[in-house]
Each structure stands twice: as structure tokens, then as C-alpha cells.
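Input C-alpha cells:
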């Protein structure tokens, strides 16, 4: 997978964690992604029912893994206290391009484990990532 990541997306421990987690999600590296999540993590893909717990989260990612990302662009990562946000774009194997924003809550200010994720995803009407 080709990565396009802004240099400032890695200049703090929580930013580095969110960057790596985003890469794990895009590449469907479920085992590595699960290491960053609390056991009772809640993932809400806006418009769908929340997914609760690591096992259900892993199952949902596995269901989605049939259409992998060819290219991932991370435009920015913002962190403050127990919260973080990332936005970017993904070009998938089937040619679809999606824009995304994920909002994270950590279990503590240290930001070692993710408690919840709220994701917004929208299909873009272009074939390449800018």
C-alpha cells in the first residue's frame, strides 16, 4: 500500500499511535490494530449501529477486508488530552476513493489504549487521491 502522510502526523506519541492504527485499519492488519484497543472498545461508523468489544470489532474489520486500500493519505492528526482526530483519503482496489475522519477517545491522557472511535466515511467522485 502506498502511504502519503504529512510529516507532522508523527511528532508526538499519540499522533504516532493514531498514524499506526490508521495504517493497520487500512491494511486490515487486525492483530496489530487490536493491540491498541481496550477490550470493551466501541466503534461507531456514523449511520450504523455501534460495534462493541474487541472481538466484534475484529470480526467487522475481517468482513470489510475483501477490498483493500491501494493508497492511504493522512492529511492531519490532531490530539488533545484524551482525544484525537485523523482525516484522510483511501483509494481501494476496486477503484473507489473514500474520504474519512475518525475521532478517538483514549482510556487515559497517556493515550496508550483507545476506548472509542467515531468514523465518518464518504465516497469521493474521483479516481485518484490528491
Amino acid at each position: 500500500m502506498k502511504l502519503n502522510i504529512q510529516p507532522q502526523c508523527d511528532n508526538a506519541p499519540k499522533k504516532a499511535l493514531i498514524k499506526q492504527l490508521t495504517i493497520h485499519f487500512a491494511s486490515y492488519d487486525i492483530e496489530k490494530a487490536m493491540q491498541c484497543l481496550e477490550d470493551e472498545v466501541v466503534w461507531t461508523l456514523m449511520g450504523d449501529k455501534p460495534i462493541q468489544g474487541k472481538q466484534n470489532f475484529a470480526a467487522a474489520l475481517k468482513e470489510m477486508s475483501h477490498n483493500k486500500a491501494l493508497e492511504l493519505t493522512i492529511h492531519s492528526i490532531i490530539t488533545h488530552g484524551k482525544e484525537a482526530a485523523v482525516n484522510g483519503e483511501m483509494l481501494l482496489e476496486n477503484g473507489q476513493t473514500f474520504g474519512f475522519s475518525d475521532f478517538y477517545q483514549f482510556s487515559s491522557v497517556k493515550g496508550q489504549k483507545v476506548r472509542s472511535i467515531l468514523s465518518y466515511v464518504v465516497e469521493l467522485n474521483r479516481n485518484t487521491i490528491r
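The radius of gyration is 14 Å. The longest helix spans residues 13-27.
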